[in-house]
Amino acid sequence: MAQGPASGDLIETDALVIGAGPIGLFQVFQLGLLDIRAQVVDALPAPGGQPLELYPDKPIYDLPAIPVCTGRELAQALLRQIRPFGAGMHLGQTVTALETAPDGRFQLATHTGTRFLTRTVFIAAGVGAFEPRRLKVEGLARHEGRQLHYRVDDPDTLAASDLVIVGGDESALHWAAHFAADGPQRARSVTLVHRRDVFDAPPDLQSRVQALREQGAIRFVPGQVGACEADGDGPLAAVQVNLNDGGSLRLPLDHLLVFQGLSPKLGPVAEWGLAMERKQLVVDTEKFATSVPGIFAVGDINTYPGKRKLLVSGFHECTLAAYAAAPIVYPDRPVLLQYTTTSPKLQQRLGVLPPAP
Ligand SMILES: Cc1cc2nc3c(=O)[nH]c(=O)nc-3n(C[C@H](O)[C@H](O)[C@H](O)COP(=O)(O)OP(=O)(O)OC[C@H]3O[C@@H](n4cnc5c(N)ncnc54)[C@H](O)[C@@H]3O)c2cc1C
Predict the structure, then answer these.
(1) Going edge to edge, which strands form the sheet with 236-243?
(2) What is the model's pLDDT at position 8?
(3) Residue 130 in contact with ligand 1 by CB distance below 6 A
(4) How far apart are the CA of 258 and the centre of ligand 1, in A?
């Protein structure tokens, strides 16, 4: 899949899809079948939305013709399915601005400065942009990106240092085990801080962490970070942990990794002047159009009479929204219903048949 260009560039496209959750990804597929080029933006570093972030290893049983698949498998399968259309993926970026351009197209911008000019917009923003839950400790925020991390982008930069890892979920345990294990990225020390000695992670990962604790490669501290210590404007030197038994413990560190889960922020979507009801975008059920022509809303972000927040409903919405967008992108082309089974044109677009000479 094509990666997006550097921030600051202006990208012209037929369709901009906000959200790379399952519905945003399937929107790309339905648009691709109709020969509509799309770019996709997501606040998260990986495409997949709720199934990948909230229940990657849990089984989904109600997808048509797929008796069972996990959240992760669903994301992988959708990415495979849209590969032929080469949509640009702009990850780790939140769409903050959406306005109408003088020529009737839409101008959008992300918080990192990528800008888009597009004929149509598909808001597939689910329950909002997922952001890490931040650790609320006075004076800590200014260390974010240097010594305070809510995700690990480059593990090499954390190797051979003193790490304090806060959290009890799969990410916290994964990175604790990763940096404590023998290997080129091994840390000098790994301290895992969590409220309780109970974790929310797959059993095999919990067993691995337990074994590393028994070997002394991971130190476990039951408690919560209550304060941080830095020399004036200098680097973060240590955190103070309030222990469950009422005492406190100073933990010197080079890096603090915090995994407290993600929380969705509807944020900018609510500020674009689109009709909303209870934090959802109001759409019709013929085109899944919002109150602004050319802007569609699909998946968990929309509402209409009888709406059910299910994957299968969102997939249906993508199909009709794509058909409704086709006359905007190709005003002179009739929009015909074709079957992927029998249409050479669709099979060419899917890359199953070679392009027409
Ligand atoms: C625990 C759990 C189990 C579930 N099980 C099932 C099930 O068995 N069957 C079923 O049908 N459904 C199930 N669901 C519901 C299903 O996951 C949702 O209906 C589905 O994920 C909605 O997809 P979506 O693409 O609309 O939104 P999401 O999956 O929420 O994806 C939206 C994406 O948009 C991004 N985004 C939002 N705003 C912005 C912005 N401004 N800029 C950039 N990116 C943005 C977000 O980061 C996110 O990645 C379950 C949900 C949960 C929580």
Answers:
(1) 148-149, 255-258, 162-166, 189-194, 219-230, 236-243, 248-252
(2) 59
(3) yes
(4) 23
